[in-house]
Amino acid sequence: MKRKTIILTLVLIFVIGIFNFSLAQNPEDQYLTQGIDFLNQQDYLKAINCFTKVLELNPTDISGYYYRGIAYNQLERHQEAIGDYTKALEINPEIVEAYLNRAYSYESLEKYQEALADYIKITEINPQFAEAYYCIGVIHQGSDKIEDALTNYAKAIEVDSQFFEAYFNRAVIYHAQDKIEDAIADYTKTVEINPQFLDAYYNRATIYQTQKQYQNAIADYTKVIEGAPGFKDAYYKRSFCYAGLGNMEAAKKDYETADKIN
């Protein structure tokens, strides 16, 4: 199962608030600052080297483990990242971002139950963390635990009413369940929040096409084509809708355009 990663917590967001190090007061802090700079420059090997020096100077420096974990993530060295996040959490078991990033690594290694446990832990620490509910929903959806997925998407939306990915994934489930009005409502909410989300237009268009609401379907396929002019299937389907309205000239044009796309 693959999912779009909502977050891989980057670099300076909560350094002062959580780790509370003083800038460049001693060699440990200097290496930490340099490592963060290298992270920002996407020079991950040099960042790892700096954070390793931090940990050589202070094996209990939580920030060294956390940020080295991020660098390992960026290099797709996920097992090493998991080790560092685990060390950070042994020192401070309340760091939500470490659970989140460790879960990302677990998912990258297809260890979904371990990832699920971390996402659940996040909701225990911070019940207002919408992304964790969403990620729980994604794992359940991938495991065909549909009702659990719906419950968690609903929770994500309750916490963050602008969480368009949760609306979209819930719409996909409703669509598969033939709960058409519910699916349309969630696809519509998705594009209201994010007008660039082409998959929602496309999926809603297929519903309208099936219902022979050809004008609505054409409008949605047009949105898809505007955003992805090389999307062959959208031209074919819009061609069908034009034909359904008796506009054979437009239907022929779309069909010929689709045929020219590799």
List keywords for this structure.
262 residues; 0% strand; mainly alpha; disordered N terminus; 15 helices; Serine Threonine Protein Phosphatase 5, Tetratricopeptide repeat
How would you portray this structure in words?
This protein has helices spanning 15-19, 27-40, 44-57, 62-74, 78-91, 96-108, 112-125, 130-142, 146-159, 164-176, 180-193, 198-210, 214-227, 232-244, 248-260. The protein has 262 residues and is mainly α. It starts with 14 loop residues before the first helix and ends with a helix. It is built from 15 helices and no strands.
SS strand fraction: under 5%
Tally of DSSP helical segments: 15
Task: Please estimate the helix content.
Answer: over 70%
SS-based class:
mainly alpha
Number of strands: 0
Low-confidence runs (pLDDT<50, min 5 residues)? Answer: 1-18, 20-24
CATH T-level fold name of the domain at 1-126: Serine Threonine Protein Phosphatase 5, Tetratricopeptide repeat
The Rg value, from CA coordinates, equals: 23 Å
Measured between the Cα atoms of the first and last residue, the distance is 28 Å
- CATH C-level class of the domain at 1-126 is Mainly Alpha
Q: On the 0-100 scale, what is the average pLDDT?
A: 91
Order of helices and strands: HHHHHHHHHHHHHHH
CATH superfamily of the domain at 1-126: Tetratricopeptide repeat domain
Describe the sheet with the most strands.
Answer: none
